[in-house]
UniProtKB/TrEMBL annotation:
Record bears the keyword Mitochondrion: no
GO molecular function, one term: ATP hydrolysis activity
Entry keyword set: ATP-binding, Nucleotide-binding, Repeat
Domain ABC transporter: 19-276, 386-581
Organismal lineage: Bacteria, Bacillati, Actinomycetota, Actinomycetes, Micrococcales
Pfam families, alphabetized: ABC_tran (PF00005)
Full protein name: ABC transporter ATP-binding protein
UniProt cross-references to CDD domains, sorted A to Z: ABCF_EF-3
Domain of life: Bacteria
């Protein structure tokens, strides 16, 4: 199902519409985030933007949208008929004020389309008054073309279809947006962006907070979107079904002479981009092969460099060092000495030239890749300490009025549970009951005595922490000085060491969520609750985290919409359903 408003524009939008980045570079202080990024996106199936947390995806989208000026490079966004394109950006901040009602927020998104519709009426009345005026006729034709291109005729139908498709159809239009849940505000922000009908669509993590039906709606909408679409996403299944090309910001092989020793160069910082045509699944295999080739090429080049440097040192004599000419005459000695000097000079210069050429062209060293070290790396005794027996969590007809219908569930020690279901059925609410963050309004929830419960909420990005405090100081404040001393932040493979002295506010949302996960795992709990654990995490980390769950010696309960995770899940499964009306 797609929005009829959006689909109606597909036949009239010009294929020439595009957005192009040329040599974009951005630094934050001494840290370089984007370096010489160039690529373009044209109309057609969406392009995926991927990369490690902190690699600059959000920054790049803001630059393309004109929200942030790059340190170097240019952006060109061309709309229909060569006019400047209107660029729409979905990012973390809502595009509406929190004191607005849902109705007011929606109407602000379609204000331009309402104006286009009114312009057609005004032009029609002007044409009726002056039917033979060529300029009036041209204005009417242009107004009609704009209405067709933007779908201005179908605004009200589009509003209803988009809100229904994103699971917001039942939300009262007179409710203040500040009273909505975080997930509802995120979906309303997505609806606002789609309904504003920009020529170029830029989306930052659009599937966060979307259930299956909403993802299906979004996928269909983007497939029929007439203009360029560039989306940054952690959702592997969504990428596989929605894009046919990828732009990867992670480091790639580049000549050392072009990169130098960049400040902050390493994991999460690339030079240029890798462009790939095909699905995400195919790209994963291609990238693994490319990394192996990069490492092998670097090793081979370094071996050649060592040989050439040795040759440049040794090529100073010809023949045996103790050889002397047969004739003792001064003329003979001079002749042979001159010949030796000429040959030596030629060989030395040749060796130095080959050395200089290879040093100039050599690729840079592959930066170390972050690799998540597991859920229990902080505790060598976790296998024994976290084991329990019998039921550890019990919900008996537990409910929260307006948020969770009565549910009964018994979770045994060491079990791995996956909670699924559409938006609004109470998956996060049930986890919060188990974590003790909420109390039921009916029924009961019980945790076995002596067991510690830890939870990573879906929005746990340390939003309330001091943004000016360093990452290392924040970690120490979260886990305590003694724990931070015995379990350093670098233990987990979640953040590179260079980030530990940066202020917390300089981290991306995904990097702050990595820090929250590290703080949780510094002392692994008996019961680990993970609410949408793949939200905001890079594709690589999401895969590594999923792979670690089955081996956790304690109990794990995961709530997730992630279709990729659900496909590979081998533990127990509870699907929550909306209560019957």
């Amino acid at each position: 199902m797609t929005s009829p408003h959006i689909a109606s524009r597909a036949s009239t939008q010009r294929a020439a519409t595009h957005v192009a980045a040329d040599g974009i570079s951005v630094s934050y202080g001494e840290r370089r985030v984007l370096t010489d990024v160039s690529f373009s996106v044209t109309s057609g199936r969406p392009t995926g933007l991927i990369g490690e947390n902190g690699s600059g995806k959000t920054t790049l989208l803001r630059v393309l949208a004109g929200r942030q000026r790059p340190d170097a490079g240019t952006v060109r966004a061309v709309g229909p008929a060569g006019a400047p394109a209107r660029v729409g950006l979905l990012h973390q901040e809502p595009p509406f004020a929190l004191d607005e009602t849902v109705e007011e927020a929606v109407e602000s998104s379609v204000r331009l389309l309402r104006e286009v519709s009114r312009a057609v009426g005004d032009a029609a009345r002007a044409l009726a008054a002056a039917p033979h005026d060529e300029r009036v006729g041209t204005a009417y034709a242009e107004a009609l073309e704009a209405a067709e291109r933007t779908g201005a005729w179908d605004v009200d139908t589009a509003i209803a279809a988009t809100l229904d498709g994103l699971g917001l159809g039942d939300v009262p239009r007179n409710r203040r947006t500040g009273e909505l849940s975080g997930g509802q505000r995120a979906r309303l922000s997505l609806a606002w962006t789609l309904l504003s009908a920009p020529d170029v669509l830029l989306l930052d993590e659009p599937t966060n907070h979307l259930d299956d039906s909403a993802v299906e709606f979004l996928t269909g909408t983007l497939r029929s979107w007439p203009g360029p679409v560039l989306l940054a996403s952690h959702d592997r299944a969504f990428l596989d079904s929605s894009v046919n090309s990828l732009v990867d910001l992670d480091p790639a092989p580049q000549p050392h002479s072009l990169t130098g020793d960049l400040v902050g160069d390493g994991t999460g910082t690339g030079i240029g981009v890798i462009r790939f045509s095909g699905s995400y699944s195919r790209y994963v295999l291609s990238r693994m092969d490319a990394r192996e080739r990069w490492e092998r090429t670097y090793r081979d080049e370094q071996a050649r460099l060592r040989k050439l440097r040795a040759a440049a040192r040794d090529q100073h004599t010809v023949g045996h060092s103790d050889w002397t000419p047969r004739s003792d005459t001064r003329m003979a000695k001079k002749f042979y000495a001159d010949r030796n000097a000429t040959v030596v000079s030629r060989r030395v210069n040749d060796a130095r030239a080959r050395l200089a050429a290879l040093e100039e062209e050599q690729i840079r060293k592959p930066p170390p890749e972050l690799f998540f070290q597991g859920l229990t790396v902080a505790d060598s005794a976790a296998q024994d300490r976290l084991r329990a027996s019998g039921p550890v969590l019990t919900a008996s007809a537990a409910e929260v009025s307006g948020r969770l219908a009565p549910v009964s569930l018994t979770v045994g020690a060491g079990e791995k549970w996956l909670l699924t279901g559409p938006n609004g059925v109470g998956k996060s609410t049930l986890l919060n009951l188990f974590a003790g963050r909420l109390q039921p309004t009916g029924g009961s929830v019980h945790c076995a005595p002596g067991l510690r419960v830890g939870m990573l909420g879906q929005d746990d990005t340390l939003a309330g922490a001091d943004p000016d405090r360093s990452v290392a100081e924040t970690y120490r404040a979260l886990v305590g000085e003694d724990r931070a001393e015995s379990v350093p932040l670098g233990t987990f493979g979640l953040l590179p060491g260079r980030d530990e002295n940066r202020p917390l506010g300089a981290l991306s949302v995904g990097q702050r969520r990595r820090l929250a996960l590290a703080a949780l795992l510094a002392d692994p709990p008996h019961v680990l609750l993970l609410d949408e654990p793949t939200n905001h995490f890079s594709l690589v980390l999401a895969t590594q985290l999923e792979a670690a769950v089955p081996g956790y010696p304690g109990t794990v309960v995961v709530a997730s919409h992630d279709r990729w995770l659900r496909r590979t899940w081998n533990g127990r499964h509870l699907r929550l359903e909306a209560p019957a009306v």
